[in-house]
Design a protein that fits this description.
Strand order of the largest sheet: 4-5-9-7-6
Oligomer: single chain
Largest sheet: 5 strands, mixed, barrel
Bound molecules: decanoyl-CoA, flavin-adenine dinucleotide
Distance between the termini: 52 Å
Radius of gyration: 23 Å
Number of strands: 11
CATH architecture of one domain: Beta Barrel
Helix content: 40-55%
Structural class: alpha+beta
Length: 496
């Protein structure tokens, strides 16, 4: 046998992550960090072990069985092993529960866990994000009955009582434009609300609950007439109630995630709040899942770079290790710089979320969070695709070969820009936020974050001034404003 190339090895995702370590040191008081350290270390161990297992065993995908041998409709989904372990590992390490504590640092503690767990989770983080979002939206609704019913399950520290929640919004006419929702909510003879319609993408279809948008029968068209409902998917015997799973989607990536098309045929539902303005009511969920998206995109970048960096110490070309080739080293350094910027933005939003929720942010905090959430989501999503693509190239031909596990990084990264609001939809959402507060929250953040006299301050302020004058030029012209929204979003995100 001739030359054999060493495979890349993954460093410990917690102990060897300088960026996470520095950020935790900045964001958490020493005693809070000490309280989380064992969970973070264990999630790092789990991620390392999952990577090794993944390299040794062939990938599997979820399988839907709709009918049993005797003709009964069963809609059973066999899950991958990472999914089977998901409830156990995440409740044991309080991935969701940590984020709903009383302290302003709770969200930091959750998102550090998410960052470590996500690359091992086979996108179990997708329904986890939605469950976190559902808990947040129910809390915001103040619906005491639903809070008491669902939150002990959503935030459980025991896998036996843990429930996942879905987010049923997208339908065939509109995923961005949910105002076109066709699902109808109707009361039965006993006064129970039931939903009828088709949800076109349901990624937590194995979940026990969901928050769903539907149009109460007789309500008018458009977004404001939609209501938000809380749904439990199974009856007391564990049978689906009033829904069938039509099929699992065949997707570019996220293959382990069972994304389903679902027909709702009378699933019982409870209104979360008043029977209108359902999008307003679900918005807290959207903003939380968008923050998860940003953190998970950053976690993908960290994984891709960690592997590429290690490989650069094992592969030689033209008589030197890749890491000692100036241009390869520069390529890796540029990737690292882009990742660290994206990390800072995503985790700044995570930190701010906790501070705003606990009333610990300054006067601009809530408006800043509203503005930065779509920016962090759209920016990190695109950056993760770029970094995953570049990382594959760092492996040369091996990066294109399936059983290295590398192509999956790129396929999976593509989803971050599509779900939870596409780049354009989030750019328009940024305009909503700017309409309410303008650039004042960003200017205040810059004043807080960048020391006076720092060399970059003049460039940042000039960028904000130029953006403000561009906004001023197009503000009366809606078409021009929307056409500029993406450019403004990328400028402001880069600035942050
Ligand atoms: C592993 C990674 C973790 C991530 C997991 C992800 C799992 C993926 C699952 C999904 O993809 S779930 C489906 C996600 N779908 C979307 O994100 C929908 C994308 N479309 C939008 O975001 C639209 O902008 C939206 C449907 C929200 C609004 O469209 P409209 O019809 O133009 O609504 P409108 O009238 O502007 O807004 C309705 C209300 O919501 C307004 O408030 P008011 O009623 O008080 O006037 C808006 O201000 C408010 N609103 C909208 N977006 C908001 C918001 N409020 C706060 N935050 C927001 N982001
Ligand atoms: P469209 O809304 O048709 O968008 C098409 C294009 O038009 C996009 O490029 C968009 O940016 C652009 N566009 C739309 N409106 C505008 C505008 N006003 N200005 C400029 N450009 C615009 N949904 C759920 O509800 N629950 C789930 O669990 C779920 N899981 C998913 C899992 C996966 C793997 C995927 C891929 C999607 C999932 N989705 C889920 C659906 C996802 O949220 C939608 O696909 C997404 O919101 C986009 O909606 P759409 O597919 O209808 O695209």
């Amino acid at each position: 046998m001739g030359f054999l190339q060493d495979a890349p090895r993954l460093a410990h995702p917690f102990r060897d992550d300088r960026v996470l370590d520095a950020w935790l040191g900045h964001a958490l008081p020493v005693d809070r960090l000490a309280d989380s350290a064992a969970d973070l270390d264990a999630l790092g161990d789990y991620a390392l072990d999952a990577y090794d297992r993944r390299m040794r065993t062939p990938r599997t995908e979820p399988v839907l069985t709709q009918w049993d041998a005797w003709g009964a409709r069963v809609d059973r989904i066999a899950l991958t092993s990472a999914w089977e372990e998901g409830a156990d590992i995440t409740t044991r390490h309080a991935v969701l529960a940590a984020g709903h504590g009383e302290s302003p640092w709770s969200r930091v503690e959750t998102f550090a866990r998410v960052y470590l767990y996500h690359p091992a989770s086979e996108f179990y983080c997708c329904p986890l994000a939605m469950t976190d979002g559902a808990a947040t939206a129910l809390k915001a609704s103040g619906n005491r009955e639903l809070i008491d019913r669902a939150l002990p399950h959503f935030l459980s520290r025991d896998a036996a009582t843990f429930w996942l929640s879905g987010q049923w919004m997208t339908e065939t006419p509109g995923g961005s434009d949910v105002g076109r929702t066709e699902t109808v909510a109707r009361r039965d003879a006993r006064g129970q609300w039931r939903l009828y319609g088709r949800k076109w993408f349901s990624s937590a279809v194995v979940g026990e609950a969901a928050l769903a948008l539907a149009r109460p029968e007789g309500a008018g068209p458009g977004t404001s007439a939609l209501a938000l409902f809380y749904v439990e998917t199974k009856d007391e015997e564990g049978r689906w109630q009033g829904l069938t799973i039509d099929r699992l989607k065949k997707k570019l990536g996220t293959h382990e995630l069972p994304t389903a098309e679902v027909t709702l045929d009378g699933v019982p539902a409870t209104p979360v709040g008043p029977l209108e303005h359902g999008v307003r009511q679900v918005a807290p969920m959207l903003n939380v899942t968008r923050t998860w998206n940003a953190v998970c995109a950053v976690a993908t970048m960290a994984r891709a770079i960690a592997l590429a960096r290690d490989y650069a110490t094992r592969r030689t070309a033209f008589g030197a290790r890749l890491i000692d080739q100036p241009l390869h080293a520069r390529t890796l350094a540029n990737m690292q710089a882009e990742y660290e910027g994206a990390f800072s933005l995503a985790f700044h939003v995570a930190e701010l979320l906790g501070h705003v929720e606990r009333g610990a942010a300054d006067a601009h905090g809530a408006a800043l969070l509203r503005l930065l959430t779509p920016l962090a989501k759209l920016w990190t999503a695109k950056a993760s695709i770029r970094i995953a693509s570049e990382a594959l190239e760092c492996f040369g031909g091996a990066g294109y070969i399936e059983d290295t596990g590398l192509p999956q990084l790129l396929r999976d990264a593509q989803v971050y820009a599509i779900w939870e609001g596409t780049t354009n939809v989030l750019s328009l959402d940024m305009l909503r936020a700017l309409g309410a507060s303008g650039l004042a929250p960003l200017r205040a953040a810059v004043a807080n974050l960048v020391p006076a006299g720092a060399p970059e301050l003049a460039t940042i302020n000039a960028t904000l001034d130029t953006t403000e004058s561009l906004l001023g030029d197009v503000v009366g012209d809606r078409a021009a404003l929307e056409a500029s929204a993406r450019a403004i979003a990328f400028t402001l995100a880069r600035c942050m």
